[in-house]
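Dear colleagues,

For the upcoming journal club I promised to circulate an example of a predicted protein-ligand complex. I picked one with 2-phosphoglycolic acid because it came up in last month's discussion. The inputs are reproduced below in full, followed by the predicted structure.
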Amino acid sequence: MRKLLLAGNWKMNKNVAESVELAQTLVEKLKGITDKDILICPTFTALSEVSKVIKGTNIALGAQNMYFEKNGAFTGEISPDMLKSAGCSHVILGHSERRQIFNETDEMVNKKALLALEEGLIPVVCIGETLEQREAGEALGVVETQLRGSLNNIVGDDILKVIVAYEPVWAIGTGKTATPVEAEEVHAYIRKIFSDIFGSKNAEIIRILYGGSVKPDNSAELMGQKDIDGALIGGAALKAEAFEQIIKVAK
Ligand code: PGA
């Protein structure tokens, strides 16, 4: 049985004080939940302070991005070691906003994933098609290309540490959610491709999250799908009550 993972992506929201306040509220509201994994991903500047708040609780800490070099002259970038020293265990990679606004390619996401694994961080690798691609009937092909490209050259047991997040771009922040059937179709396909590359045993273990307008009222049905192993939540993760509800109704 794959344990559900509910992850909050706070994006470029909340300063340090606001992040600490939200984290403190979540610690209270979510304590005692052990049958699901919980992850929050605040912005870089809040990581250290939030990590102090959630230390020793059932909430893990992730960053929203990192660079694919260990250190050096890369002004404005953040290394995996810096994230670890700020208390992170996870890092979101290749979010569609990074791909679309900052031109990240599968090759870059792959370099980041390889370095994250080498440095002991768990990568949450995001893939997903645009509305145009879906309407052109290309959704599965796009997702397959992104999956293969982003996970290239990951060998051995490292692949079991990877978390995949399927986030149809047209469903992110739009209030439009993929129906459970639409989402499950792509999730099952991702698991099949994963099985082709890394073997069926590994494909049964790996977790595939759904992301895109997950809310308290659609969480249960989405999370109830066979190949959906959790969610990456944006907007609703900024409100403690909504995040709590999404987690509590997920089965
Ligand atoms: P959303 O964002 O829940 O606000 O649609 C999801 C994401 O981008 O991770």
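Two points we might discuss: The pocket of 2-phosphoglycolic acid is lined by residues 9, 167, 172-173, 211-214, 232-236 (CB under 6 Å). Residues 5-249 form a domain with the TIM Barrel fold (CATH 3.20.20.70).

See you all on Thursday,
B. R.
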